[in-house]
Design brief:
Blueprint: E1 10-12, E2 17-19, E3 24-28, E4 31-35, E5 38-40, E6 48-52, E7 61-66, E8 72-77, E9 83-85, H1 92-109, H2 111-123, H3 127-149, H4 157-177, H5 185-188, H6 190-212, H7 219-252, H8 258-283
Antiparallel strand pairs: 1-6, 2-5, 3-4, 6-9, 7-8
Helix pairs in contact: 1-7, 2-4, 2-8, 3-6, 3-7, 4-6, 4-8
Length: about 280
């Protein structure tokens, strides 16, 4: 039996509420959906709905509260925010905050996507080109993410994850090829490569967003916020790497990128080959 991430999590209801009947539980892909009907002696406004175990897990949880008066409130829980305070009225700012934080945490927890961003950094010639390249990557995955989440395209996750690994290998090869002194088209215009493969990576992001769902009536805002969170996470990751490199280069009096870039490219390539083999085996 395959263990699904988050299947051990359970909601912790306020003291003045109790469940009615057994919860409905359904596994959808790699997500677990639980539906609870509850009765409360007092208003839920201001009450905390927690999820036991979320702080110790790597799962993100979306909490949807459908009130008797027809209002539907939602929030995204993660290890940093394991409880949802039921508001009197949910604002657009609440939705934007929840989904931007989810996007931020998701990109920083996705090693394969971060390795791809590292490869884009090695491909870019300067800071302006780096920002344009990373932003193009975001634009690319925003397109397919939106199409997949809205149901216009549907691809099985296993082949998508395999192709993402292949894209990282291709990027590593492109970085190595650029070191022979003859700039390739992709090295001169890395944003083209970033946008093209961003379309592929967007299908991977869609799997994560589909796990937690989108709030009814605020789908465009949630999608935009999720993408903005990913963009900020990518730029923070790039900023930390650049700052770390400059600091160690000054302290250790390291030479320019040269050999270090080649070592990083071969490291990315080796890791991507491992992922390709692992994910091909998963598909087969």
């Amino acid at each position: 039996m395959v263990k699904v991430l988050g299947e051990e999590l359970r909601p912790v209801l306020p003291e003045h509420c109790q469940s009615i009947g057994d919860p409905g539980t359904e596994t959808v892909g790699i997500a677990v959906v639980q539906r609870w009907e509850i009765a409360c002696r007092e208003s839920l406004e201001g009450s905390l709905i927690e999820v036991s175990g979320v702080a110790a897990s790597k799962a993100s949880v979306v909490v949807r509260v459908a009130l008797a008066d027809g209002r539907v409130l939602s929030g995204v829980l993660n290890p940093d925010q394991p409880a949802f305070a039921v508001p009197a009225r949910q604002s657009m700012l609440d939705v934007a905050k929840s989904y931007s934080l989810f996007g931020f945490h998701h990109i920083l927890g996705g090693l394969d996507h971060l390795v791809f961003v590292l490869g884009l950094m090695l491909l870019a010639a300067n800071g302006r080109q780096l920002i344009a390249t990373v932003t193009s990557f975001t634009a690319g995955h925003s397109v397919t993410l939106s199409l997949a989440v809205l149901g216009f395209v549907d691809f099985p996750p296993a082949p998508v994850e395999m192709l993402i690994a292949v894209s990282i290998l291709f990027l590593a090869l492109e970085v190595v090829r650029g070191n022979d002194g003859s700039p390739t088209l992709m090295r001169r215009f890395p944003w083209m490569l970033a946008f093209g493969f961003g379309l592929l990576h967007g299908l991977g992001f869609a799997g994560a967003l589909s796990e937690i769902g989108l709030p009814t009536g605020e789908i465009p805002l949630a999608l935009l916020s999720f993408n903005l969170g990913i963009e900020v996470g990518q730029l923070v990751f790039c900023g930390l790497l650049v700052a770390g490199y400059l600091m160690f280069r000054r302290l250790l009096r390291l030479p320019g990128l040269g050999s270090g870039q080649a070592i990083a490219a071969y490291g990315i390539g080796s890791l991507s080959v491992f992922w390709v083999l692992e994910r091909v085996a998963a598909v087969l």
